[in-house]
């Protein structure tokens, strides 16, 4: 850093990259040396002096102190590896790359004495990485969970408020720019999975294998399920969670993403539209919740610019920069299999409208040690079938699946939906 001026190179000038340029424009002591994009001829809202289509130019530029990676995708990994080897600090918003390759990248950063900051990668504008690593450093956590994907929360909110189908609400979200043309990563829960992997990693100080995270999206949720949940005192949310648990007498990390019925009395049930929330439970702090905008040009740029300014304040001050922000763990967590987890379940059953069907459900639950807290019949359908809703007490997932197999073995009973309860 020459003349107290921090020199940065930005990879990506899309939604976030352009926001970062706008936000940094008021800082005379930060210079954007160069930016890399895919298409150099594209019209943009901001101007950067040196534009290139080769991001390696930035990784190799001796003038650059910090690489800001806001391109996305995992193809950019090799560029970041080269930048770290060239002793450049990294600020990034790329949750997928961090969740898949973070361990390798952090090891490399340690070897090369540089920092990787990634506040924007989880929950966009909400400060969560830095607080966990600094202000909450003294805590031992047993639980972190959140609504980490604005697109799905927007869709579920609209389904609930306007009694519309999933497809109608997805279309609405796409028209308003809350969902991508290809919404797969959001609606199938991948985006939230990357984020909970990053959070679990720093909250529990363990490496996380994303291939062992159970993941289920929101595409099977219907307006009918939302309406029934509402009548029973719940909202349906896509929850990403990681918690310490003892299954089969073994300490495990139970990490997953799936829709959940959330009691209306819980604060997280009130998180609407594209807003995100992260809850933590630890000692000595107890329960805390962070709420705010999880995406968008300016909220995300707030986090990226905050990381850049943090580095600016630290570089040249001491030998080891931001030691609390470094990655200090190298051991992989024991991750629970979803079959071994314990949950309460909402189960929507379609069966014959005959006397004795409810009794059969009760018997099947009894056979597998499942206690029910609620069983109701929601009228009869046009085809003569009956819809029965069951809410169980805490049960082992594999017993629930055995009970479901037993019920479905009669060829006329079908489990239409199974949603875990928070
Ligand atoms: N958008 C949000 O609200 C948000 C929130 C939190 C985190 N993030 C994360 O921030 C990152 C950027 O998101 P975004 O929404 O800004 O994406 P975006 O609008 O699609 O912009 C991506 C930018 O990267 C450039 N790019 C892509 N591949 C490149 C490559 N190989 N070399 C050089 N440039 C390349 C693109 O160039 P062209 O413009 O020439 O195509 C574009 O300028 C992603 O990791 C995303 O997950 C985004």
Outline the structure in words.
- The protein folds into three domains: 6-125 and 297-325, NAD(P)-binding Rossmann-like Domain (Rossmann fold), CATH 3.40.50.720; 129-293, Dihydrodipicolinate Reductase, domain 2, CATH 3.30.360; 342-421, ACT domain (Alpha-Beta Plaits).
- 33% of the residues lie in helices and 28% in strands.
- The protein has 13 helices and 17 strands.
- The strands form two sheets. Strands 7, 8, 9, 10, 11, 12, 13, 14, 15, 16 and 17 form an eleven-stranded mixed sheet that branches.
- A hairpin with a 4-residue loop joins strand 14 and strand 15 (385-392).
- The longest helix has 18 residues, at 95-112.
- The mean pLDDT is 95.
- Bound molecules: NADP nicotinamide-adenine-dinucleotide phosphate.
């Amino acid at each position: 850093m020459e003349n107290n001026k921090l020199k940065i190179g930005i990879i990506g000038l899309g939604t976030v990259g352009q926001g970062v340029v706008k936000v940094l424009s008021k800082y005379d002591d930060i210079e954007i040396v160069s930016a890399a994009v895919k298409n150099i001829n594209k019209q943009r809202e901001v101007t950067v002096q040196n534009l290139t289509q080769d991001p390696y130019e930035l990784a190799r530029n001796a003038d650059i102190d910090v690489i800001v990676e806001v391109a996305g995708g995992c193809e950019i990994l090799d560029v970041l590896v080269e930048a770290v080897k060239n002793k450049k600090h990294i600020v990034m918003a790329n949750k997928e790359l961090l969740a898949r390759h973070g361990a390798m990248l952090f090891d490399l950063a340690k070897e090369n004495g540089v920092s990787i900051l990634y506040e924007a990668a989880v929950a966009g504008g909400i400060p969560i990485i830095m607080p966990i690593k600094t202000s909450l450093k003294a805590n031992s956590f047993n639980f972190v969970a959140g609504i980490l994907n604005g697109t799905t929360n927007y869709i579920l909110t609209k389904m609930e408020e306007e009694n519309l189908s999933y497809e109608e609400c997805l279309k609405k979200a796409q028209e308003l720019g809350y969902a991508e043309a290809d919404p797969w990563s959001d609606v199938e829960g991948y985006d939230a999975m990357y984020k909970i992997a990053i959070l679990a990693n720093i909250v529990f100080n363990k490496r996380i294998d994303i291939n062992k995270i159970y993941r289920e999206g929101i595409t099977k949720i219907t307006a009918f399920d939302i309406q029934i949940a509402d009548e029973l005192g719940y909202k349906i949310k896509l929850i990403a969670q990681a918690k310490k648990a003892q299954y089969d007498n073994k300490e495990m990390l139970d990490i997953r993403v799936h829709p959940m019925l959330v009691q209306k009395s819980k604060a997280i049930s009130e998180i609407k539209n594209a807003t995100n929330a992260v809850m933590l439970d630890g000692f000595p702090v107890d329960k805390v919740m962070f709420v705010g905008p999880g995406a968008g040009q300016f909220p995300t740029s707030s986090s990226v610019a905050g990381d850049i300014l943090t580095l600016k304040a630290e570089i040249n001050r001491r030998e080891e920069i931001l030691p609390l922000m470094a990655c200090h763990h190298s051991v992989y967590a024991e991750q629970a299999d979803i079959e071994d987890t314990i949950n309460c379940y909402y189960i929507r059953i379609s069966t014959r409208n005959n006397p004795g069907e409810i009794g059969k459900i009760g018997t099947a639950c009894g056979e597998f040690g499942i206690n029910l807290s609620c069983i109701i019949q929601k009228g009869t359908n046009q085809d003569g079938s009956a819809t029965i809703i069951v809410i169980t007490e805490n049960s082992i997932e594999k017993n629930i699946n055995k009970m479901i197999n037993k019920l479905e073995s009669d060829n006329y009973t079908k489990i239409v939906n199974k949603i875990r309860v928070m």
